[in-house]
Amino acid sequence: MLDKLQAIRERYLHLEEQLSDPSTASDVEKSKKVNKEYKKLQPIMQTAARYEKAMSNLSSARSILSMESDPEMREMARDEIAMLEPECTMLEDELKTLLTPKDPEDEKDVIFEIRSGTGGDEAALFAGDLYRMYGRYFSARGWEVEVLDENPGTAGGYAKVVLEVSGDHVYGKLKYESGAHRVQRIPETEAKGRVHTSAATVAVLPKMEPEDINVRKEDIRTDTFRASGAGGQHVNKTESGVRFTHLPTGIIAESTESRSQHKNRDIAMGRLVQQIQDAQVQREASALASARKSIVGSGDRSEKIRTYNWPQNRVTDHRLEGDNKNFNLDKVIEGDLEGLIEALTIADNAAKMQEG
Description:
By secondary structure, the chain is α+β, with helices and mostly antiparallel strands. It is 49% helix and 21% strand.
């Protein structure tokens, strides 16, 4: 981390010199480009300055504690160390996050799917709980949400909900939510008070176009068709369903979730992109058997990424370790997901930093 930070500091100082150079100021395009990069590096340098100051103060306090004989001075040093150690850890984690290259997909809007899994009516009720939980989180972040499709459960909750979520840094925040979410609680229909385990799945698809994955438009065949469903004029007369076929690989993705063909194109394209990327990842994984398995998994729905334990009022994310993997269920289910998502982001960035 220190080597990378030093390289960034040198680049930052070089940009600073360029900004003060009259020749840069006279070149509008160059000035704009240099200023943009300079501002992009500012948060890293500001955090680095705070980190280095805190580490220097911590080192001084430790020296006083080891060398000073006066009890009062030693006590003051202990107090300062107790305050500075967590601050240094926090700033170090923040620096790791800032130094990790950003995924260009993080800024994309998403198609967000919640589906009930194993567990019958209880799974549908849990899917409804997840829908409300995420809805509160989306609202707190000021994101726009459009319901594309919803299928209520027979006893409440939902068998399926498909949303389009738009706003700032949506995929970057939600990409860790893909996978199987498991619930352990006593269902309302359970007469003997036994704890049951059910599941719901979440899929987060970034909204993409062919140019986002370097796929040629001529390599994609597009078919439209009438969506099947419960009936009605729309189902019978409108070809809203969309199917994409990637000709070089034979990968097919389709959507009938929305009454809008435009929305179904977005959903189907997101699915096609994900399948092409998954196929590429599998090829690379077989060629590089020693490559790490990402802390966030592949997003496969068979992976249980998180358990919501009602009796113990605890949410456990199985991709995290130690005390960092447990969270208060009351807060999480009310949409307070920021701490959990931040922990996953830091852990994933730390793993990427170790790999260089």
